[in-house]
Amino acid sequence: MKGLLLVISGPSGVGKTSLVKKFLEEFKSEVIFSISCTTRKPRPGEVHGKDYFFVDQKTFEKMIEKDELLEWANVHGNYYGTLKSFVYENLLKGKSVLLDIDPHGAFQIKQKIRDSVLIFILPPSWDELKKRLQKRKSESESEIQKRLRRAREEIKFCKDYDYLIVNDRLEKAYEVLKSIYIAEKRKTCRFLNNLENEIKDPYLISLIRSEE
Ligand code: 5GP
User: Fold this and answer.
1) CB within 8 A of 31, min separation 6: which ones?
2) Looking at ligand 1, which residue's alpha carbon is closest to its atom 12?
């Protein structure tokens, strides 16, 4: 695959959305965000086709049946899934694709696309995670408790990710995320897959590609 598949996970409230937004803004010419499908209701301000494709349960189940999803999971009682065609089309074109998905989805991706890069975002402390969730004010108290219970489970999966980032301060966490991306793109096998985009000199390319 020519493009790099980046998978970001982390408990609800950890600040994934802000990190991802900043990252996509800086790398908009080369990284594309995979918009997931979900049966969850839109939050105030969320836009269909931008934040998610909001679909009903029947539609989602049809997509599973037709094998249109690269991965899917039931999170907080709602279905979430990644569109297979979107991811493959962009990776084949040489674009990097970024997924913000839960650990069950992340491991399904790693099984299917071995050179995907899995990054888990951790909060600096449990108390801070609670505070961030409460500050968000978009969920009821019982919803917050549900998300904290899930966070407790999700954090245990972080050991199987390729990279861990602690989101204490957004700026610092962002620098780490950026460094990971830049380094991963320069791994020899990936660089060689994209050689013509990286180096314009045909003679240098022929030297690099030569078998002798
Ligand atoms: P939220 O409802 O806060 O937008 O997302 C809840 C959780 O669902 C987050 O952990 C998010 O990473 C995960 N999620 C979002 N889209 C997908 C997806 O397509 N697949 C999977 N497996 N998880 C997703």
Assistant:
1) 6, 23, 24, 95, 96, 97, 98, 181
2) 101
